[in-house]
Please model this.
Amino acid sequence: MEGWDPSTQSALTQIPLLSTRAGPRDGAAWTQRLKEEYRALIAYTSMNKAGDNDWFRIAAANPEGTRWEGSCWYVHNLRRYEFTLQFDIPVTYPATAPEIELPQIDGKTHKMYRGGKICLTVHFKPLWAKNCPRFGIAHALCLGLAPWLAAEVPILVDSGMVRHKDDEASSTEY
Model:
């Protein structure tokens, strides 16, 4: 955690680390891992709400916990920009981090792969690999998606690639 800003360090220390090394094909061990994932997500969400920093909603989209969907948002110039959030748990999880997708902004930035998958290769994936299996979904959101949104959304808004929903509604001609 050397070189990280104090708020990131504080957030990371409050998210419980996971201990079960199991993926979607591991039966009962995967069920245990999912319980740990939910505990970490609940702790992270509670911490964000307590600090008035609520910025995402997410839930498993299937009973197996291999598909996750929700939304995330970023406030820029006092306007909230909200995006659909989704990802699949890789078969090799937790050795492989999930690829977080924001399909609404697919193709609008170079820091994104086809299908709206955000680029986490250089900065986040080495950190994930070093902390496997202790990191989980909450850590991917905290250390992967949150900094990506902070870096990319202002640029996308200022360049006109992303528009606020109120601007889109007012520009429609009848």
